[in-house]
Amino acid sequence: MSARVNLTLNINERDYAVSVEPRHTLADVIRDQCGLTGTHLGCEHGVCGSCTILLDGEPVRACLIFAVQCDGQEIRTVEGLSEGNELHPLQASFRDNHALQCGYCTPGFLMLAAGILERNPSISDEDLRDVLSSNICRCTGYANIVKAVRAAVAEMGRR
Amino acid sequence: MKPSAFRYHRPGSIAEAVDVLADVGPDQGRVLAGGQSLVPSMAFRLAAPSTLVDINRIEELGHLSVQDGSLVIGACVRHAAFHRSVVDGVPGPFLTRVARHIGHYPIRQRGTFCGSLAQADPASEWCLVAVALGASVTAASKRGTRRIEATDLIVGAMTTTLAEDELLTEACLPLPAPETRLGFAEFSRRAGDFALAMVLASYRVVDGRIAGACVAVGGAEDRPRRIAAAEMALDGNPPGAETFAAAGGAAAEALDPMEDAQTSVAYRRDLVRTLTSRALERAAA
User: What's the angle, vertex CA A46, arms to CA B101 and CA B139, rounded to 5?
Assistant: First the structure.
């Protein structure tokens, strides 16, 4: 077996000292070592998007990056969205618009949407649908997810 | 769905990277760039490299610039770099349109242009672009550097002529002349899926007739290639539905398409026929 590597991951503006094998994905380390189980793993090969997190502000699949690659980078997970008990506008909008049922894919969709809206708040409907096609949801049929993200844009602009 | 164990190196320079590759390349070592194809195949254990040489922190591989009429793309330039126009004129927005067919948005934040060429997936959009526009790549090793034409680099599905100790450091994409028209059309079953077929077409119009036509097909055979019969059907003829349909027919006929359980040879031929016309129409628009 390969030797463990000690490194520090910065997640949601907090440092986590971890000891990983190079083969451990970022998603597994976020969940198993940092205890942040909001990041979900669906397919584990980059297709479903459940494990989407923000790496230096950009949405990426955490199952397709090794944790050992990520020291010194800024990682954000779904746990970093709310402020205390106050939900992030995207979270509130998902609830209000019935954009989830079982909830398994929701953290991935939230981080995907947060990443794209922070980068491009005036994104067109066509581009937004294209971006949201990145992730798989087997409950909602997507229409309410698109609606929720659109509704959150206005609220995010007010903050 | 967990990769098997490997050793990890993160060199800080090309010189350091080729040093490591000289050591580990012949012993199942692999270069890790975006990892959006390599890591899934490791998760399935279709790939089990002994060592990964992570080039993501090598700053000298991040360049993207126009030099002597060519776009020079460093090994760490991500697909997402092409979300915006990277060059003036027709090729900039054209490359943006092509890039939007590559996987999905988060995949494009990590995957790289050069990684696609080194991976040589038959359904790779960038491999088609490279072959159609006459790109070349630079391969570096401890033994020196060499330049490889894209058509000599990609020799089959997932197969290149890169040696085990070589690092693909950059790609050089000649930019078409300003008056060149460019069109691209792709078909896949779902958004972001692998292409079942795609066509890149380019030509100029001189005195109302097509000149310098290029029709290249990807995703249908084991590697992208230009289809001479389709180009001959275009050159010297006026652009329009009739000429485009003739080129589509010629392209479909000249192909030796791959077949799988969902996609028959006849279906891929039909796709190429239609996509060739579409790409030519888009170029005309």
Answer: 65
